[in-house]
Amino acid sequence: MPFIKVQNKKLFYAQVDAETASKDGSVLVFIHGLGSSHSFYIPVMNQLATAGYSSIALDVYGSGLSVLSEGIEDPTFDTIASDVKALLEGLSIRPENAVAVGHSMGGIIVPKLALKCSLRGAVLIGPVLPKPAMAEIVNTRIRTVKKGESI
Fold it and tell me: Where in the numbering of this chain does the Serine aminopeptidase S33 domain appear (predicted)?
């Protein structure tokens, strides 16, 4: 499985190509939730390949195999969206051919990505809606994930 360098970050991604040519050239781009990784989508990606769809799933910066590096800012929703846009560019995938799919935290990233480029489509699966009252819970979860602990 490959890595790509975008915006001075080394991002891991998995790519599963369609078994047959897609009729419309769509590529699904999967963005996982907080504490998850690209592996969440692999079973779905394999099934999509049999139906003629190519797909990509990345480990967002600071998750899975896309480890944090010294001297680079911690990820934010906006920087993750910019990273996904740069990933598409680096893989020569036109945004007009990309359908971005986000689960949980990824459901926050997809609309931000859609504001940065003209996507073919956007799918939000159980998106979270950050509220001020939830900020401490989310921040605690982020600290826990950074430490590699489970909750």
Answer: 26-132
